[in-house]
Amino acid sequence: MDHAATTPLDKMVLDAMRPFFDKKYGNASSLHDFGQEAHAALEESRETMARHLNCDTNEIIFTSGGTEADNMAIKGVAFAKKKGHIITSRIEHHAVLHTCQWLEKHGFEVTYLPVDRYGFVSTEDFESAIRKGTILATIMHANNEIGTIEPIEEMAKICNEHDVLFHTDAVQTFGKLPINTKYIDMLSISGHKLHGPKGIGALMLKRGIKIEPLLHGGGHESGKRSGTENVPGAVGLAKATELAYREMKSESKRLSQLRDRMIKGLLKIEGSNLNGHPAKRLPNNINVWFRFVEGESLILRLNDKGIAASTGSACTSKSLEPSHVLLAIGLKHEEAHGSLRLTLGKQNTLPEVNYVTKTVPTIVRELREISPFKRSYKV
Ligand code: PLP
Fold this sequence. Notes:
Elements: H1 11-17, H2 33-53, E1 60-63, H3 66-81, E2 85-89, H4 94-105, E3 109-113, H5 123-129, E4 134-138, H6 152-162, E5 165-169, E6 186-190, E7 201-205, H7 231-266, E8 272-274, E9 285-290, H8 295-304, H9 324-328, H10 333-337, E10 339-343, H11 350-369, H12 373-376
Parallel strand pairs: 2-3, 2-4, 4-5, 5-6
Antiparallel strand pairs: 1-7, 6-7, 8-9, 9-10
Helix pairs in contact: 1-7, 2-7, 3-4, 7-11, 8-11
Pyridoxal-5'-phosphate binds at residues 65-67, 70, 93, 95, 140, 144, 169, 171-172, 190, 201, 313, 315.
């Protein structure tokens, strides 16, 4: 129930990758047959990615994952332009937020747009934030904590009209939702969120956009990302992409039904509330807060019952700070701390969903009985 954090590698993906670890292990830059065999597999993987993103093959750059793709897009454009203004939102993943904050220390100006109570960035606010000197806007496709799907197509079009580059972090949506890339200049992908391997991702970078590389070296990936190519990773990402797109329609329908069933079940608990929008959310995302409950305790008790869940993003779960996303949608600290995120995946079944829906109320009741919050927290 924590597939937003990561997903298991699909057996078919593993099978596709396996020969590239031992038999076809060549360096894709070598001129001999071993190298050329690896090179061909790498380029075939690039073609697969391009086909699904409706872009050209040479517009795909393989990276080590979503974090690197985000950094490459944002810092890459910033340093190529040398100065300027960037627009983002307050609910981005830290791979975007911390990158923007770091750029502020290096002289760039950043607008962090607020969101409404569902987590939506307003397209009017977005357009008004564009000014002379705006070089880039970066807004995530869907939020990893509350699942809210942002109107990125509209925002990308607005950017296009204003001659501003538009980047989107599609780590949580790629392979789950169709993406129209017509006006999107850059888009980040991560392999391990769609039953692919960890340590591989991609940046779609449309032709003609200049970025300063983060990694200098042998000039791999058209000089934009040096380092010996991760051929098994690229093959795995491409295979995971093919499978995800093949199953997208049916899986999205199945997951949305399970999601809605779970949400309905959890909201029957007194003093509960849904975080995010009821409909415009990722098909696999459930995020609910419970009054007088401490999220960490809830996670640990669920773990004892064999349920892997989270309070928010896996990257921040070790921090005591409440989630910046939940605070941005207007939750109080106590409410943010009492939130539970459940994210479904393709192996989850209806009996599992029923088990979670049955288990959570018991634990919530037990925790409320011993809650210090109950006395100190006025709602
Ligand atoms: N962006 C979003 C929205 C994410 O959910 C994640 C991972 O949690 C990332 C970026 C980072 O991706 P990666 O783990 O591949 O670096």
